[in-house]
């Protein structure tokens, strides 16, 4: 017979995967929040009026470190990085969900096999009891016949 996987080990692995999945979901939520915040900052930078001599430089994206062009570039890089992190986290979450599904199937298969083995054990035990009773009756008849 095939070796049955230990249900406790499967449950522990399933629990661990569920914890990782929850952590990834939290990370996805945090990334979505950061993306919204950066988009709001980017929109605010477009809406903010620029005054003074730096206005022309900022309009061309050539201003100082606080210039619109620099802020846009920084925000764009952050969004790209967070988009990649989000994509990786979603892929990892899908993998964990598949692993959990597989583990749940294994646990169910193990339960089914366990139930079948218990039923088989009960049937064998009953058959053995019937055989002992029959042998006991046979012995009783022998003893009576010998007397």
Query: Which sequence of SSEs, written as H and E, runs from N to C?
Result: HHH
Low-pLDDT residue spans: none
Number of helices: 3
Main structural class = mainly alpha
Please provide a written account of the structure.
- The chain is an all-alpha fold and 147 residues long.
- It has 3 helices and no strands.
- Helix 1 packs antiparallel against helix 3.
- The radius of gyration is 35 Å and the shape is rod-shaped.
- The two termini are 49 Å apart.
- The relative contact order is 0.11.
- The model has no long low-confidence stretch (mean pLDDT 78).
Keywords:
single chain; mainly alpha; 147 residues
Concise description?
With 147 residues, this protein is mainly alpha-helical. It has helices at 7-47, 54-60, 68-146.
List the helices and strands and how they pair.
Layout: H1 7-47, H2 54-60, H3 68-146
Helix pairs in contact: 1-3
